[in-house]
Amino acid sequence: MIDKSLLGYRKHVLDEFAFENGQVLLDVEVEYTTRGTPTYDENGNINNAIIYCHRFNGNCLSIGDLSQLIGPESELSDFNFFHISITSLGYPESCSPSTTKLKFDFPKYTIKDRVNFKRKFLADVFNIEKVLGILGVGVGGYEAYTWGCEYPDEMEFLMIGSSSYKTNNYRYILSKGIESIILSSDAYMEGKYTENISKIMSSINLLIYSQYFSKKAFQNFSQDEIDILMDTFIDEGMSIDIYDLKYRNDAVLSYDVEDKLSNIRAKTWITTTTDDIYYSPEFDAYPLKDKIENLKITSFDAEDFTYNDDYSIFVDQFKEFLEEFKK
To answer: Looking at the whole model, is its pTM more than 0.90?
Structure first.
């Protein structure tokens, strides 16, 4: 078991949080962790904060995946940034349908609600109203895009990897499939966690797994290797609560900031991977060239890092992009 105290893990309780739909929850828990040391401007405000927004199945501790880029032993260890990683709204380590016991009565939330959840936390805990930058990966990139579109003066840069600015029709079909599987269970509406729901979760994780690797990677695996990797993925996914998953999926279904992308003023770096099944350069990165003004797009070979947890290929370009923001 991970000793979270060794990772700078903390909990904070917001007095309340108001959703876009007007619903309000009281005593809202937020899980977070930090890396680095804050610096302050002449007015006493933190001026080197970078916010990390995690993937669909992550949490605040997922920032550890980027240790090659931001860890104390990384090649960027002399870059004096204060990284803040916050577990998103709707996840059990923070405020979620499962931890509040509200289940399907939890307020319906959007990606913008997830952004506002983090903005309120930053204001309450660190007195931060403007950050240096936002780093988002996967669905965390949805938060980064939304933050840049809705609050364009609140950051100097955006770094977004393997993500998109909307749920296109392919991802919409996949998310509708997940929704259909969940709603097919009478036990879901009864609020009872039964064997039937466990079987449903297994089917959902199998569906998600089908998007997990690039087309080339899937072709290079033997079927025995696929079975082992698939079983591991499904087993790990069984720890996700079905109500939490349903709400995450709902937020993804309604996500689309395409018409607001021109609002983004921050310097933006988009990284994408070739041959990706879920997020493709063709549909999710290159169209941004005409939509965001101060934009850089970099495409990497997916097999170079995604399946080896090796982010070393990013180091030089990561350093180059961040050099002007170095404190």
So the answer is: yes
